[in-house]
Amino acid sequence: MSSQAMLNQSLFEEQEMIISSQLGIFPFHTNLSSSLPLLGFNQPLKTLSADSPLITLSDHSTLTKQKEDFTPHFSGLPHLLSLQRSAASNYWAWGELSDCMSMKRSGGEDHLGVSAMKMKKIKARRKVREPRFCFKTMSDVDVLDDGYKWRKYGQKVVKNTQHPRSYYRCTQDNCRVKKRVERLADDPRMVITTYEGRHIHSPSHDEDDSQASAQLTNFFW
DNA sequence: CGGGTTTGACCCGCGC
DNA sequence: GCGCGGGTCAAACCCG
Fold it and tell me: With a 7 Å cutoff on the CB, does A158 touch strand C?
């Protein structure tokens, strides 16, 4: 098995660990030490070093059960999961993607996760939206460098939070990807970034990095 | 001057 | 039907 294949396998093993755990923030305990690809929805972004705060995995179609009535269970859909290691501490953050899932929170009780019951209601009511993908980061800066160029188009103070939510659009022509950035109400050190849509282009800079990660991308897509 | 940010107004979906 | 609140628009502003 090639080293990259082994890396790929270890990533998925790690992903399984995350999935079978409680959704949210998880202790970081992995031996991943080589550089890893950071992936967009179906686009490579850039290759990051082991010290990078961002690692993204993809293509896991089923989330295992956690509790009977609170089962975020997806099957056969092109979901993404994201694993993210905080640069400031040893934690993994999780992210998930679905075709119509809302990250709406109620009274701060839901962190990033949304109960299955709520998701079913949302899914039944909402029309199909662009794929969404979100994750938490412990970071001083709100906007992480993900290789793409963004333009801010709005800011909003959301209820029950003291920190405003910022709205960004990809500056590339014809690319409709958006992202929202906000800080967690009960832990302002945590930044929640939500991406919506798929990039139709490569990252706007770091040619070498995107080239390097393109090789690794084949293991995920 | 061009590109990005700010910010108040507006739109619209959702819950009651 | 109405009000609330999240998301978007767009004019004004800022900055290199």
Answer: yes
Can you tell me the distance from the alpha carbon of A183 to that of A147, in angstroms, rounded to the nearest whole number? Answer: 21
Q: Which nucleotide is nearest to A196 (CA to C1')?
A: C7
Which DSSP letter does residue A84 get?
Answer: E
| Rounded Cα gap, residues A111 and A98, in angstroms | 17
C-beta of residue A152 within 8 angstroms of C-beta of residue A167: yes
A108 touches strand C (CB under 7 A): no
DSSP-based three-state secondary structure for A61: coil
* pTM (2 d.p.): 0.54
Number of C-beta neighbours around residue A24 at 10 A: 14
Tell me what pLDDT residue A106 has.
Answer: 30
Would you kindly state where each structural domain of chain A is located, as residue ranges? 132-202
pLDDT (tens digit per residue) in A64-119: 222 222 222 222 223 334 443 433 333 333 444 333 333 333 333 333 333 333 33
A167 CB less than 7 Å from any atom of strand C:
yes
- Residues 165-204 in A having a C-beta less than 7 A from any atom of strand B are 166, 171
Q: Is the CB of A153 under 7 A from strand C?
A: yes
Cβ proximity of A112 and A127 under 8 Å: no
Asked if residue A125 keeps its beta carbon closer than 7 A to nucleic acid strand B, the reply is: yes
CATH class of A132-202: mainly beta
Residue A109 C-alpha from the chain's centroid: 20
